Recover the amino acids of this structure.
């Protein structure tokens, strides 16, 4: 052994690095990824300090039906994370404290703090009713159900890889991240945003809120030659000066949610399996198998899928099952 390689080995041993993550290529090859223990410890210490500051902000639950939000969170069958409702200025302050610059308009699940922050948008509540905030809380709560610890298990057919420190998106996305996915801007459209929005849609339907959120609105977008389900829509103030009729809008993830809905109609076991997959590796495998049973080869198509690709998949799924 040369002196140089001995030095390399000894510096590797002293660097507190270990190979704990693997990337998986489509051909099945595993590539070890280095894990930086010191950085992880630092991140843990930082997040506990941030959590303390965050919990000093007022939690405004006034007027919200917390019981029915809780009833939805209970359905997720996952460890529950604290949820805080913040008015706009507090929400912005909390985001800054946690080092996040942007989020979905409705809120954010901050993985490092294991806390869900919901923004109370009073203008949107005035238009749609307070129940809109409740539904958006269900969406954000659904994000909180993924595992915090990195998945390190490999499935021979469906490679799974997660890295705790990569924060291209506020929270890492489950189901089949791979290194090249990090360059994909819409990472997580299907199994993260699609899943969260599916749960919000279930909440809206359970409490018959569709009409309340959508009546007397215009500009209903059509995607994939087929209107997206109305229960994902809600009203925003008009942007037109001449006509103040509210417009309909929807959050990202609605295409994925619609695909899930169609698949669940084919096999209702998919919903509990999908919920399990958020925090259980066995659930990820079962979800993959179930989706491929419903429509062979579809699971691989769904990850990672950008918005355009998801629209194409929605058209295919609609053709197959409608
Ligand atoms: Zn979301």
């Amino acid at each position: 052994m040369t002196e140089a390689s001995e030095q390399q080995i000894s510096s590797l041993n002293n660097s507190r690095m270990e190979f704990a993550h693997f990337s998986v290529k489509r051909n099945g090859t595993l590539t070890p990824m280095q894990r930086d223990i010191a950085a992880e410890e630092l991140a843990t210490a930082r997040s506990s300090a941030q959590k303390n500051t965050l919990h000093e902000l007022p939690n405004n639950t006034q007027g919200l039906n917390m019981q029915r939000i809780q009833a939805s969170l209970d359905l997720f069958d996952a460890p529950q994370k604290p949820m805080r409702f913040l008015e706009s200025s507090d929400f912005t302050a909390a985001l800054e404290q946690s080092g996040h610059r942007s989020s979905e308009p409705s809120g954010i699940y901050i993985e490092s703090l294991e806390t869900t922050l919901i923004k109370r948008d009073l203008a949107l509540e005035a238009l749609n009713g307070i129940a809109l905030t409740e539904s958006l809380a269900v969406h954000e709560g659904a994000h909180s159900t993924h595992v915090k610890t990195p998945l390190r298990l490999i499935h021979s057919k469906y490679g799974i890889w997660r890295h705790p420190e990569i924060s291209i998106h506020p929270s890492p996305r489950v189901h089949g991240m791979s290194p090249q996915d990090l360059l994909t801007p819409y990472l997580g459209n299907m199994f993260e945003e699609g899943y969260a929005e599916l749960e919000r849609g279930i909440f809206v339907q359970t409490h018959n809120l569709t009409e309340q959120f959508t009546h007397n609105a215009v500009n209903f977008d059509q995607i994939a030659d087929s209107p997206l389900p109305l229960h994902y829509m809600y009203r925003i103030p008009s942007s037109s000066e001449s006509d103040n009729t509210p417009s309909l809008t929807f959050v990202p993830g609605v295409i994925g949610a619609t695909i899930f809905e169609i698949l669940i109609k084919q096999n209702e076991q998919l919903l509990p399996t999908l919920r399990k997959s958020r925090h259980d590796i066995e659930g990820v495998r079962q979800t993959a198998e179930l989706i491929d049973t419903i429509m062979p080869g579809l699971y691989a198509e769904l990850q990672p899928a950008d918005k355009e690709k998801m629209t194409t998949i929605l058209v295919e799924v609609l053709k197959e099952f409608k």
